[in-house]
Specification:
Helix content is 43%, strand content 15%.
Length: 408
């Protein structure tokens, strides 16, 4: 009994629920199953320029797996991670995705870069290997294959909901003359299209557009052109240091218009790279690293203890990946015949019976045969950079964040 209470104190509420589910659902002797593992693939940029959000993603998965394994894993099987570094490179991502199939993982969680993910989706689809994307937000990822046949799931907010969310906010603030800066990567191209579509829904169009290559170091001339076009807000869609280049260009010409965008404006590459030029930037967020309720406080505390840090570089990446791991394990309890093949896991993800009370959201049937995106627009809040940290842009969002949202 003392051991039971020790486990309860040590684990989060979500882990305790997994423990109960394991005890309830076990249909074979745990001793026999202890010799087996459930091989879970993980792929993302753990080195290179995108490691700033690849590493927190990996950490979130590792934290969840450690908690799950501490209470018996999945029906006595420990979760075994097979980790592959795609280095943020599409060709490397393709090679490592093929390696995961060869190593016979049961499912995979991963991808941070839309272009890298798009190059590899066919590998998972053709192998009938479920893939849960916890970071990459490119709208095309969950639209490439017809939903009923698709093995691609996601626990991050796709750009098709982030872009309209930010556009709605800037229009409410009275900013309607948008200068749109987007890189030429798969992520930038998809985000550019989503922003243009969101503006058109408001009978608006950008007053100035700049498309640039990744690695650009100077956008001062483009920023001057945006100012001459009469823009009153800069909307940036890029994922790396280029966001900071945009901010510094704005600062260099002494132009004090706001910079807004999707979630990469919360990344260290932007905040640390732009320094004071990043102050006040606004971005869409699913999770802000403040202990606004019990679940989030427990997650932040557990992450800090395990990784010996007070600051998560990209909190959304860690939280969404942590939730993705639990959502997958919860889905497995719907499999009654021991069949852990890809089609069975796909079906289980589409028909999760138990509610998972997660960090980012309350996952009540997050997926279905026709919908592979777990995050809906009501889960988004507007974040803002203040004193080098991301916090809530609006007091009402902070209050609403006391309650974890369900999908609408």
């Amino acid at each position: 009994m003392h051991m039971l209470f020790a486990i309860l104190r040590r684990q989060t509420l979500a882990t305790w629920l997994v423990f109960l589910a394991c005890a309830w659902a076990a249909v074979a002797p745990l001793q026999a199953r202890a010799q087996e593992t459930f091989k879970l693939g993980v792929i993302g940029p753990f080195s290179g320029p995108s490691a700033d959000f690849g590493t927190p993603m990996l950490n979130g998965i590792q934290l969840a797996v450690e908690e799950i394994n501490a209470v018996g894993g999945y029906l006595g099987r420990k979760i075994e991670l097979v980790i592959k570094d795609d280095k943020g490179n599409p060709d490397e991502g393709l090679r490592q995705s093929q390696a995961l199939v060869t190593e016979k993982v049961r499912a995979t969680i991963g991808f941070c870069n839309t272009g890298v993910a798009m190059r590899s989706l066919d590998v998972f689809q053709n192998a009938q290997l479920p893939l849960i994307v916890p970071c990459s937000t490119g709208t095309a990822l969950t639209a490439k294959f017809p939903a009923p046949q698709s093995y691609v799931f996601r626990t991050s907010a796709r750009d098709a909901i982030q872009a309209p969310f930010v556009v709605d906010d800037i229009v409410k603030r009275g900013w309607t003359k948008v200068a749109l800066f987007a890189d030429k990567s798969g992520y930038g191209d998809g985000g550019f299209q989503d922003v243009v579509k969101a503006l058109a829904a408001k009978n608006l169009q950008p007053v100035y557009v700049s498309r640039f290559d990744l690695g650009v170091k100077d956008l001062v001339d483009e920023m001057k052109a945006a100012r001459s076009a009469g823009a009153d807000v800069v909307f940036s869609y890029t994922v790396g240091p280029e966001n900071a280049v945009i901010a510094r260009a704005r600062q260099a010409i002494g132009w004090k218009v706001p910079q807004v965008g999707a979630w990469p404006l919360s990344f260290p590459f932007f905040i640390d790279g732009a320094k004071e030029a990043a102050e006040g930037a606004l971005m869409a967020q699913t999770f802000i690293a403040e202990p606004s309720n019990e679940r989030r406080a427990a997650f932040l505390s557990a992450y800090a203890r395990k990784f010996q840090t007070r600051r998560i570089p990209v909190p959304m990446a860690a939280a969404q990946a942590y939730d993705a791991t639990y959502v997958l394990v919860y889905s497995l309890f719907g499999i009654r015949d021991g069949n852990l093949g890809g089609p069975a896991i796909k079906s289980a993800l589409e028909n999760i019976q138990r509610v998972y009370y997660g960090v980012v959201a309350t996952y009540d049937r997050p997926f279905s045969l026709d919908d592979k995106d777990a995050i809906s627009a009501n889960m988004l809040v507007m974040g803002q950079v203040r004193n080098g940290l991301v916090t809530f842009a609006y007091p009402e969002d902070a209050r609403r964040n006391l309650f974890v949202q369900r999908k609408q």
